[in-house]
Each structure stands twice: as structure tokens, then as C-alpha cells.
Amino acid sequence: MDDIQDRLSASELASFFNELADVAGRIAVTHFRSSVDFERKQDLTPVTIADRAIEMELRRLIGARFPDHGILGEEMGSTAGDRYTWYLDPIDGTKSFISGMPLFGTLVALADEKDGSVAAGMINMPALAERWYGTRQGTTFNGKQAKVSRTTRLEDAQIYTSSPDFFTPGDWARYDALSQKAMFRRFGGDCYQYGLLASGHCDLVVETSLKSFDFMALIPVVEGAGGIVRDWQGQPLSPDSDGRVIAAANDSLLEQALAILNQ
């Protein structure tokens, strides 16, 4: 991201991410627990006026600051740009949002399409006033350094996934075999569980059916905190990945998990 850094210091980039998160958070909390209506998209997932309002405003701010950048968002598709693309998920966890559960967040990532790297990513949880921001230089949680746990044995690990409903029967069998060997498993949280991993509160997150706007922001958050994010084959994620994602606190846990997932 040398070109970006030539034009924008690390602190200026972080400031802009925080500006985006603040704006998204204000819109989200305005509609949260307000009996907001929702529609079902073609894939039957829900979408609310808040999803659309947040993405529209984030696109406006990014376009004004970086008119030559591309944008890919969950609700409004993609707009072409130069080598840099912003990935937006205005409300990750819409089902939580519409049911009054505060475990929803806004995801923002800036990627360099030339080398496939993700320069920065943010998980913002407006109802909880919690925010993770990750780059190659590290990850912060509410402005303070975040670090993954030191757990290295699967039998001592805490493992998360959002919901069994997101798995095919075959993938669920693989996840079930893995998670049964962990110390315990928990369900729910969407993007929040990756923030928990970055802060050392859980050790593994394993999911399927994710889109690029779901996972691009998670990569620098987890890896900036010392963790690792891969697909189920152990390969780095890209916009073309198949949606199977594993985030681990370290290489040892990743290798143990992959061995079971690929038995």
C-alpha cells in the first residue's frame, strides 16, 4: 500500500476508518430496537433501511475522499476503481439487529487488488461501544493494543461459529468433529467472535458461507493481533475464496483444526 501511505499517514487512515465507524454507528443505533421493518433479499436473508442507509453514507464519504477507489458493498454491489477497493458490510448480523440483540457490527476493509493484501480493517460494534481496528502494524481494541490468546492445544481451545444453519450437512459433520475436541464451543456473534479472538477471549472461529464483504475486514483485525485467517484448505483468503473460513490464535491451532476438517 505504498501509494496510499504516500498520500495518507497511518494515523490519517485510522482517523478516516474511525470517522466511517462513527457515522455507521450513529445510523445503526438510531434504528436499533425501534421495530424497524425489513425485507427479504433473493437469497432470503433480511435487509433493513439501516443497512442501506449506512452503506449509502459510507459510499458517499469514501467517494469524496478517494474518488479513484472501488467499492464493494453487501447492499449496493460494486463500483469500479483503480487498484484499491473498499469492502463494506453495513450491518453484519442483521438477524441480531432486527431481533434486538446487540451482537451486530459494521465491517470496513481497504484492500490492494494489485498484491491481494488488506491494508486495514475494522469491526465496529455500535450497540456495545466496542471497536477493533487492524493493520500490518497491529490491532487495537478501543484504542488499546489487542493480542490473541496463547492457547496452543485444541483440547484447551474455545471455538466459536455463528450458527449451525450456515453449514451444509457435510461441512457441519466436519465442524462437529472438530468442535467436539475443543474445551467447549459457543454459537452466535457473527463478526463479534473475530473481535473476541483478536482480544484473546476465544481461540478458534470456523465458518462457511461467508462473502468477501463478510471476511475481508476480519483478516487485518485477527492477523494484526497475532492470529491467522485462512480457508479450510489452509490457503490465504481472497475475494474469490469459497466462503469457508477459519481464524486461529496461532499456527499450531490452525494446523490441528485443519487436520480434522480435512480428514
Automatic annotation (TrEMBL):
Belongs to the inositol monophosphatase superfamily. PROSITE patterns: IMP_1 (PS00629). It holds the Pfam family Inositol_P. The keyword Metal-binding applies. This is Inositol-phosphate phosphatase/L-galactose 1-phosphate phosphatase/histidinol-phosphatase. InterPro entries: Inositol_monoP_metal-BS, Inositol_monoP_superfamily, Inositol_monophosphatase-like. One of its GO terms (molecular function) is inositol monophosphate phosphatase activity. Keywords: Hydrolase, Magnesium, Metal-binding. Coiled coil: none annotated. It comes from Bradyrhizobium elkanii. The keyword Cytoplasm does not apply.
